[in-house]
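Hi P.,

Sorry for the delay on this. The queue was packed all week, but I finally got your sequence through. Input first:
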Amino acid sequence: MRSKQELTEAVRRDRRAALVVNAHSRRGRQRYEHVRARLVAAGFDLLGTYPVEHPGGLERSLAEAADLGPDLLVAGGGDGTLSAAARLLAHRDIALGLLPLGTTNNFARTVGVPLDLAGAVAVLTHGKVIDVDLGLAGDMRFANHVGVGLSADIMRRTPPRLKRLTGRLAYPMTAVALLLRHRPLRVTLKVDGATHDLVTHQLYVANGGFHAGRPITADADADDRLLVAYPVGGPARRDLLRHAARNAATGGSRTLDQRPFLAGGEVWLETDRPARVEVDGELCGRTPLRIGLDANALRVMAPADSEDR
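Then the structure:
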């Protein structure tokens, strides 16, 4: 496998890339055409281009793009798309290029990629390859987070018809209905051997610095060898809403040594009853669960001044 410097030089010199864009909607298709034109104008030799118009085609398109042997696989979409690309490219001699086209864009924010298309393309042309950690939820790699509690229940219970009619509004609408009867979980966390007990409606374990488009803390990132476990509120339903609002307002000023954060390289998660788990927005089994780190698993194009530990 080439060094990061060698891969950076190959991307800058040869511009050999493949492009996969999540283009489910009419707007997504238009974005695909715009993205493709931008990359061609920037001098990229696109070995293959894949507008993904059906949900089941993403993994297949990413695999086909990687099989072309590009130096850079450019993925355009939201966090789910970029997480799928990250899983595929773990420990491969291909750099992941990020085009953040989603709503929250947590992974791109963590890596420092601009959210505007011109800025993101500039990173692909003038940036450098760094390596970042991925999380491991059981055997499944993830880029952003594991969620246990209300978030997983929302994904399981949101009616497909409601999603078709209202789009993303379907999730908060379902959340309000579920929260009225949601039972809190008694959670036992073992973080690097230390045991912690808590009661909450929602728990997250994050790899990286952002969640819901906002900083988790001022000192978390995707290359720090740390997972960050934290509840959103306590046993009372109103706490979840109040703490979610407070987290959104103060995340950028808090640090990992403050409550309610528990940071470490390994998290064992148990609940008083089997609870569904969502991993980067996909349902993935139930508790109990071991969550670990795959250090420096992914090579990604980042701004040229990015720190690379």
